[in-house]
Design a protein that fits this description.
Elements: E1 13-17, H1 33-45, E2 50-53, E3 57-58, E4 70-74, H2 81-93, E5 97-102, H3 112-117, E6 131-132, E7 153-156, E8 161-164, H4 179-194, E9 199-202, H5 250-262, E10 267-271, H6 278-286, E11 294-296, H7 308-321, E12 328-329, H8 339-342, H9 347-357, E13 363-367, H10 387-392, H11 434-438, H12 444-457, H13 459-463, E14 465-472, E15 475-481, E16 486-492, E17 506-510
Helix pairs in contact: 1-2, 4-5, 9-12
């Protein structure tokens, strides 16, 4: 499963690491790159193919690394470039690929590019960001909204223009219509490929281009609104995002990016954030050769209960709208409530869903602590760090509840840090440490190892077709087959006996 072949990603399992919360080695309460290196043997023991490391670049940390002020620098919070080189070498020794998170749709407002761009309307980088004149009455150029709340435009007194920010005011959007911006970002990606990375996760990959005419987004009817990419309380959901993202020009840039990666045998996974056209974009971005290898959508990251019928609906839509695509499935990540809490899962239920996830066609992302069955942490407002949560509290409590530190043992702060962690560690998590679960053969951790191993042992689970997907009450059935084997999967996704299966029982039958 850790083969070095160029298509290692196809059907692979990728383990997401959120650096701030993985392992602290300096005693400042924040995880770092040497901490990741220290824990890589544990990650390798899970049987995964690769790690995806969330941003560690130089940043003012207004959005905890997703606001980059130097794409070629390591933030001192996380270490030095030498630490990254050691991490890469150790991962490769252990047979792990390394994917890093590239945030290219926007930078920090403290990036030198933005400082130059906002200085005047005629400097060399004046057009590197999305600037627009106000309407005659001084209001923003159109009705676009920020995912983090409020208008997507912010007035800049120096240029007497508005700049676009799809997220925080301190995260101005780059202007991908400018070829020089594209060239610079491709050169930046080349820098990391030359340092040995095996691929990238592309943050908000459908946000790169905006409508050059800056047309207003039309309203979206209430019955069509979804809350999978933004919480229901956010007026962002009231618009059909026809013009502020997901533009056709994106395809040509993705083809340029893919051409660069081919020279290194590297892979890319995108994040498509679009509640209306996600599967269409998945097909457009990954279903055509020469673009992205894979991308994840939010179908299994939403709050909607993942019952057997829901899974069949997702795959029916996938086969209808995106038949040539390659999805990467995930149930938890750094942006959503952990699925244990989101779906109110018992341990047997969580094990069943993990097994089903690892039997699906596509690739799989696992989020740190998922293999321990960690529930969402309840964070008091006074401990909240996430600006998104502060904006919409208490109806939406932000993303800190899924970002609390890993729990390794029953030592100080769960073995994460000798200092007060940047987010509090809940008592419930301390009952689910790695050390405790290693000693329990029936633990969630051992089950995840078994399920990943099941995928590893069966080529049909890794790359075979997925057919005959049906739901009979709570029982989900489907087949996986390649030219070597046929597997029949039957899963009872309920707490009652059904279809001759015990509660939460999953059968994988060969032949």
């Amino acid at each position: 499963m850790t083969a070095t072949k160029i298509d290692w990603w196809k059907g692979g399992v990728i383990y997401q690491i959120y650096p701030r919360s993985f392992q602290d080695t300096t005693g400042d309460g924040i995880g770092d790159l040497p901490g990741i290196t220290q824990r890589l043997p544990y990650v390798a023991s899970l049987g995964v193919d690769a790690v995806w490391i969330s941003p560690f670049f130089t940043s003012p940390m207004k959005d905890f690394g997703y606001d980059v002020s130097d794409y070629r620098g390591i933030d001192p919070l996380f270490g030095r470039m030498e630490d990254f080189d050691v991490l890469i070498a150790r991962a490769h020794e252990l047979g792990l690929k390394v994917m890093i998170d590239l945030v290219m749709s926007h930078t920090s407002d403290q990036h030198p590019w933005f400082a130059e761009s906002r200085a005047s309307r005629d400097n060399p980088r004046a057009d590197w960001y999305v600037w627009a004149d106000p309407k005659p009455d001084g209001t923003p150029p159109n009705n676009w909204l920020s995912i983090f709340g409020g208008p997507a435009w912010h007035w800049d007194a120096r240029r007497e223009q508005y700049y676009l920010h799809n997220f925080l005011v301190s995260q101005p959007d780059l202007n991908f219509h400018n070829p020089a911006v594209q060239d610079e970002l491709l050169d930046m990606a080349r820098f990391w490929l030359d340092r040995g990375v095996d691929g990238f996760r592309l943050d908000t990959v459908n946000f790169y281009f905006h409508d050059a005419q800056l047309r207003d987004n039309p309203p979206l009817a209430r019955e069509l609104r979804k809350s999978d990419t933004a919480p229901a309380v956010n007026p962002y959901n009231h618009q059909s995002h026809r013009y502020d993202k997901s533009q056709p020009e994106n395809v040509a840039f993705l083809e340029r990016f893919a051409a660069l990666l081919r020279g290194y045998g590297a892979a890319v996974i995108g994040e498509i954030g679009d509640s209306e056209r996600a599967l269409e974009l998945l097909e457009e971005y990954t279903g055509v050769a020469g673009r992205m290898q894979m991308s994840y959508v939010f179908d299994f990251l939403s709050g909607q209960d993942l019952a057997a019928t829901r899974i069949t609906q997702v795959f029916d839509a996938l086969h209808s709208v995106a038949p040539n695509s390659w999805p990467c499935w995930a149930m938890s990540n750094h942006d959503v409530v952990r699925h244990i809490s989101r779906w109110t899962l018992s341990d047997p239920a969580a094990k069943a869903y993990a097994t089903v996830l690892l039997c699906m066609k596509g690739s799989v992302c696992l989020y740190q602590g998922e293999e321990l069955g960690l529930p969402e942490a309840e964070i008091a407002f006074e401990d909240l760090q996430d600006p998104y949560g502060k904006e919409f509290w208490p109806e939406f409590k932000g993303r800190d509840g899924c970002r609390t530190p890993m729990v390794w043992d029953m030592g100080v702060n769960g073995g994460f840090s000798t200092a007060k962690p940047w987010l509090p560690i809940p008592h419930a998590h301390l009952q689910r440490t790695v050390t405790a679960q290693e000693a329990d053969a029936q633990s969630m951790l051992h089950h995840y190892r078994w399920a990943i191993g099941l995928r590893r042992r069966h080529s049909a689970l890794r790359g075979g077709d997925m057919t005959d997907i049906r739901a009979e009450g709570p029982v989900l059935t489907f087949n996986r087959a390649d030219d070597q084997q046929v597997l029949h999967i039957r899963a009872n996704l309920s707490a009652d006996e059904a279809g001759g299966l015990r509660p939460w029982q999953v059968q994988v039958i060969e032949g």
